[in-house]
């Protein structure tokens, strides 16, 4: 978008800047900056770039956008529902500049919508006399700044060249061609995403409003901006200002159902009057809809005209012109060589701009043109019609006089609509714009009320109250409005909100206290101050331990006047280091000490009374002869045992005693802190051992294979080894050894005391063999009882040994007396169960024949 405003003012109120008696001017004389923020409390503007501004400059504040429109998908889209501050402007002065912050001298008249209203600050030069020697223009509107040319001349402004800001206002819509051949008809939405992302709708022309990008395409008007053409190939609407914009032409005739009216609507003319005193740039025209794949022609809408504002005592026009015309829609020139085709919807013409004249005298004729731009023609040599562009509305001329001077030659013409030149100049629904308007009695708004900051200064009064409390009082000096609220930040994370307040600090140290005052206009000021909290230290000393009824001493520090409690145990409770006695139980003593400033602090110390010791000794115990007892004493730090005989260490709390006879042991126990002691005793009774004897009934021979054993003299018995015993835990077990064996028995009496005896069983065979067969075996590979064979004392002279299964099948045949069966037959494991063995042997004891059963266990 491009917006241009030219201001010419005469002011006897304020003359600023450098000036000469006669200045030759031309080109661009204004500086522009976007207003990013306004701080009303300091009358400060933050701008995008303040480098061209200086103290004393005259400046123009103007809000370019911000109006509210109907955004529904209907023919009312773009209707102006409210202007807010759009179009407001006023003249002020630079009081001070710091970086990009500009402080204004006077209080603004209007409340501008910063930053969403696209407010810009324009530096306005001041001349005594000025002569325009080359075309005077301005920076084009770029969406944030530009579009305004303004000057002040104390005496006479002479025109020896034109002032021309045509086409530098709000920008026309972009007719971006998506290069998609084909006929796609009857699209009639009032808003859509524009052609840059969607080839169904062309972009609307820019205006003094803002909406979401998704609604900037389509045929609905955009406040003063013309609507965009729709699919397929309808024309864009004209922009508006003093007069409304014309309508864009119908869609492509080849769609059928002709004519189908989906061309862009013309922009709406904004309200101009002396009450509102708003000014606007010419609205941009809507673009035409384009989609030819060859050529890539983009039928953009025309830009609107800018705004010219002149303040002067006199103008000598010399038949020169002030021009703020809207641009025509972009013309297409067919080119068969480059394949450019113009058979598209065509863009509309931009709205005429605005000229403001606060001038008392006109010395010679001046021409003022605020003409709307023409809608572009469709010029492609085809038989069918496409939508031409709508004409732009005429602009605005506004003078300070009650009637128009005869030396002003105005041209308020509206832009013509485009036509289809190849079908007999058929407008195909496109219409011209409306003529502009002239207004009188202009009074440009000069600010006059000097700004003075309300909160002139702040102060903090503080005083220490006791050890750690500060009493605060806020002081403020204001010019007009009272302080509405106070806020304290005490420097330790705590806050307060009363003018007079008090705060207690939990730790000594330095704190930065901040006070913020807010006045009735919500303006704030602040002040900070460093506060010190002294370290008032009272220390009652370290905790201690004393013995009951023994003297002790307390050691305190800090302060000037002292009081200890409880005082009953102390010689003088007002001393810093009193002596104490007679304490029987653990007690907490408190020291309260005061300082010269009235601070009183208390600390405590624990006097722990050592508890009486609990001396103990182990109970009487009994032991068997030749064993030991563990003695145990407790409650002290040193131990002495008597008698020392048969003790491993008589100077420890838990010696081991091995007396030969019953003994009473005494121990002296001493604790080292308070030297308490006691003598305790314990008895160790030594019990005699039982008289155990062992005997046998016979030895082994060829007739007797078992022996009876017998033990006496005890209550319980345990025989060893246990192999071949009927029961090793009885007094008289039966032994069946296969060799000579010594059996030992351990007998215990009722006290658990034990003694032993042994008996030897001899083999009386004279070299004769005894056969012994087990009754089961477990061939599981664990190395125990895995193979079944004959057990004997000496090898037989001749042997037959075989094993049969339950069906009489021989599963094993020994080849010698040492062979045994592993439980397999033909290398296959045999099932668990009962098997029959047969043995026939010729031994020194005679011929032996034996038959029996064995159990194979798996």
Tertiary shape: elongated
Query: What integer value in Å does the Rg equal?
Result: 61 Å
In DSSP terms (H or I, runs of 4 or more residues), the helix count works out at 0
The amount of helix comes to: under 10%
Distance between the termini: 103 Å
Sheet bearing the most strands, described?
11 strands, parallel
β-strand number? 57
Mean pLDDT: 90
Q: Decide which structural class fits the backbone.
A: mainly beta
Strand content: 35-45%
- Unreliable spans are 1-20
Describe the structure.
The strands form 16 sheets. Strands 1, 2, 11, 12, 13, 14, 15, 16, 17, 18 and 19 form an 11-stranded parallel beta sheet that branches. The chain has a 6-stranded antiparallel barrel with strand order 3-4-9-8-5-10. It has no helices and 57 strands. It is elongated, with a radius of gyration of 61 Å. The two termini are 103 Å apart. By secondary structure, the protein is mostly beta strands. The protein is 0% helix and 38% strand.
Topology, element by element:
Layout: E1 6-9, E2 23-28, E3 31-39, E4 44-47, E5 58-63, E6 68-69, E7 80-82, E8 89-98, E9 101-104, E10 119-124, E11 126-127, E12 130-137, E13 148-159, E14 163-164, E15 307-323, E16 354-369, E17 396-399, E18 408-411, E19 437-439, E20 455-465, E21 469-478, E22 483-489, E23 495-496, E24 500-504, E25 509-519, E26 524-533, E27 544-546, E28 552-553, E29 561-565, E30 579-580, E31 587-594, E32 600-609, E33 616-617, E34 621-624, E35 629-630, E36 633-634, E37 638-642, E38 656-657, E39 663-670, E40 677-687, E41 693-696, E42 707-712, E43 716-720, E44 734-735, E45 741-748, E46 754-761, E47 771-772, E48 776-777, E49 788-789, E50 791-792, E51 798-804, E52 810-813, E53 820-821, E54 824-825, E55 828-829, E56 833-843, E57 846-856
Parallel strand pairs: 1-15, 1-16, 2-12, 11-13, 12-13, 13-15, 14-15, 15-16, 16-17, 16-18, 17-19, 27-32, 34-40, 48-57
Antiparallel strand pairs: 3-4, 3-10, 4-9, 5-8, 5-10, 6-7, 8-9, 20-21, 21-24, 22-23, 22-25, 25-26, 28-30, 29-31, 31-32, 33-36, 35-38, 37-39, 39-40, 41-42, 42-44, 43-45, 45-46, 47-50, 49-53, 51-52, 51-56, 54-55, 56-57
């Amino acid at each position: 978008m491009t917006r241009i405003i030219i201001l010419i003012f005469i002011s006897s109120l304020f003359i600023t800047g450098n000036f000469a008696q006669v200045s030759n001017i031309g080109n661009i004389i204004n500086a522009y900056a976007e207003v990013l923020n306004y701080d009303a409390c300091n009358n400060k503007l933050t701008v995008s770039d303040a480098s061209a501004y200086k103290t004393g400059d005259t400046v123009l504040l103007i809000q370019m956008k911000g109006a509210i429109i109907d955004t529904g998908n209907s023919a009312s889209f773009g209707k102006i529902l409210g202007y807010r501050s759009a179009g407001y402007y006023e003249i002020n002065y630079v009081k001070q500049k710091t970086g990009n912050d500009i402080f204004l001298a006077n209080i603004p008249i209007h409340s501008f919508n910063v930053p969403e209203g696209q407010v810009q600050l324009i530096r306005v030069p001041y001349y005594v006399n000025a002569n325009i020697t080359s075309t005077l223009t301005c920076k084009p509107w770029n969406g944030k700044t530009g579009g305004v040319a303004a000057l002040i001349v104390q005496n006479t402004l002479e025109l020896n060249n034109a002032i021309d800001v045509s086409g530098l206002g709000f920008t026309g819509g972009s007719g971006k061609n998506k290069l998609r051949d084909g006929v796609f008809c009857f699209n009639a939405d009032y808003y859509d995403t524009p052609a840059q992302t969607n080839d169904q709708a062309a972009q609307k022309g820019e205006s003094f409003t803002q909406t979401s990008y998704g609604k900037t395409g389509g045929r609905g008007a955009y406040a003063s901006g013309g609507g965009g053409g729709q699919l397929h190939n309808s024309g864009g609407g004209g922009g508006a200002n003093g007069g409304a914009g014309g309508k864009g032409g119908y869609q492509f005739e080849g769609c059928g159902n002709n004519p189908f009216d989906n061309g862009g609507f013309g922009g709406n003319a904004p309200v101009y009057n002396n009450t509102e005193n708003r000014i606007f740039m010419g609205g941009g025209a809507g673009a035409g809809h384009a989609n030819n794949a060859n050529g890539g022609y983009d039928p953009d809408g025309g830009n609107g005209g800018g705004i010219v504002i002149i303040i002067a005592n006199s103008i000598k026009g010399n038949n020169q012109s002030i021009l703020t015309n809207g641009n025509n829609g972009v013309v297409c020139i067919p080119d068969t060589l480059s394949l450019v085709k113009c058979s598209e919807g065509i863009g509309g013409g931009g709205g005429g701009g605005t000229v403001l004249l606060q001038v008392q005298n006109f010395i010679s004729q001046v021409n003022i043109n605020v003409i709307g731009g023409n809608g572009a023609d469709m010029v492609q040599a085809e038989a069918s019609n496409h939508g031409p562009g709508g004409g732009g509305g005429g602009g605005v001329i506004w003078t300070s006089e009650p009637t128009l001077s005869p030396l002003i030659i105005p041209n308020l013409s509206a832009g013509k609509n485009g036509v289809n030149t190849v079908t007999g100049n058929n407008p195909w629904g496109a219409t011209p714009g409306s003529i502009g308007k002239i207004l009188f009695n202009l009074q440009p708004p000069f600010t006059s009320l000097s700004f003075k900051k309300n909160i002139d200064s702040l102060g903090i009064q503080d005083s220490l109250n006791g050890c750690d409390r500060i009493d605060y009082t806020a002081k403020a000096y204001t010019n007009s409005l009272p302080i509405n609220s106070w806020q304290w930040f005490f420097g330790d994370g705590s806050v307060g909100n009363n003018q007079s307040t008090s705060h207690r600090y939990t730790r000594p140290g330095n704190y930065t206290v901040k006070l913020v005052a807010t006045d009735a206009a919500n303006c704030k000021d602040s002040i900070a101050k460093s506060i010190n909290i002294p370290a008032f230290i009272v220390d009652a000393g370290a905790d201690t331990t004393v013995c009951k009824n023994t003297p002790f001493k307390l050691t305190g520090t800090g302060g000037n006047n002292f009081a200890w409690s409880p005082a009953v145990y102390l010689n003088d409770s007002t001393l810093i280091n009193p002596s104490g006695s007679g304490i029987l139980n653990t007690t907490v003593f408190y020291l309260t000490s005061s300082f010269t400033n009235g601070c009183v602090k208390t600390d405590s110390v624990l006097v722990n009374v050592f508890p009486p010791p609990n001396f103990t000794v182990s109970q009487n115990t009994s032991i068997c002869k030749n064993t030991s007892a563990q003695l145990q004493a407790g409650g002290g730090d040193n131990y002495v045992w008597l008698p020392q005989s048969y003790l491993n260490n008589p100077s420890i709390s838990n010696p081991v005693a091995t007396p030969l006879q019953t003994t009473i042991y005494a121990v002296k126990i001493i604790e080292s802190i308070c030297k308490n002691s006691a003598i305790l005793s314990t008895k160790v009774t030594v019990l005699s051992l039982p008289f155990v004897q062992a005997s046998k009934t016979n030895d082994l021979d060829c007739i007797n294979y078992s022996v009876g054993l017998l033990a006496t003299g005890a209550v319980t018995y345990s025989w060893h080894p246990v192999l071949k015993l009927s029961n090793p835990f009885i007094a008289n077990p039966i032994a069946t050894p296969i060799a000579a064996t010594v059996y030992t028995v351990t007998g215990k009496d009722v006290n658990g005391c034990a003694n032993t005896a042994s008996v030897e069983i001899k083999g009386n065979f004279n070299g004769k063999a005894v056969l012994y067969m087990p009754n089961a075996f477990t061939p599981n590979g664990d190395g125990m009882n895995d193979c079944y064979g004959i057990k004997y004392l000496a090898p037989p002279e001749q042997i037959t040994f075989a094993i049969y299964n339950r069906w009489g099948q021989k599963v094993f045949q020994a080849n010698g007396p040492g062979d045994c069966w592993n439980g397999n037959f033909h290398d296959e494991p045999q099932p668990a169960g009962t098997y029959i063995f047969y043995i026939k042997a010729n031994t020194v004891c005679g011929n032996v024949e034996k038959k029996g059963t064995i159990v194979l266990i798996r």
